[in-house]
Design brief:
Largest sheet: none
Order of helices and strands: HHHHH
InterPro entries: CHP01589_pln
Number of domains: 2
Biased composition (Low complexity): 104-113
Number of strands: 0
Distance between the termini: 67 Å
Biased composition (Polar residues): 1-11
Biased composition (Basic and acidic residues): 84-96
Region (Disordered): 1-21, 84-113
Number of helices: 5
Length: 113
């Protein structure tokens, strides 16, 4: 992946790489961490928050690398986004069903008392 950060991105990369690693190796690290986020079915925003909190990577860096990955892997990310939306819908439907069951059971048991 070729990623040429903006001037502000370069300044952030310089500050983030105090261990002397190159910008390219830092970007590869962020790329690998984003792949891990994807394995956990995280959204871009969730990934940005997780990497900021747990890996001290600025959200703008994660966002920039994510956007480049989206450009290079358009079909994958379209499918990934659809899949996340479908899972969210299924989860919401399942949650409503469970709530309905709990309410129904509660109503049945309270009438029997």
């Amino acid at each position: 992946m070729t990623l040429w950060p903006s001037r502000s991105g370069t300044e952030q990369l310089d500050g983030a790489m105090e261990d002397g690693s190159s910008p390219a190796s830092y970007i590869r690290l962020v790329h690998r961490l984003i792949e891990e986020c994807i394995l956990f079915n995280m959204s871009k925003e969730e990934c940005m928050e997780a990497l900021s909190k747990h890996a001290n990577i600025k959200p703008v860096i994660t966002s920039t690398v994510w956007k480049e990955l989206e450009k290079e892997n358009k079909e994958f990310f379209e499918a990934y986004t659809r899949n996340r939306a479908e899972r969210a819908s299924e989860t919401e439907t399942e949650t409503r069903r469970r709530i309905h069951n709990v309410v129904s059971e509660s109503s049945s048991s309270s009438h029997g008392v």
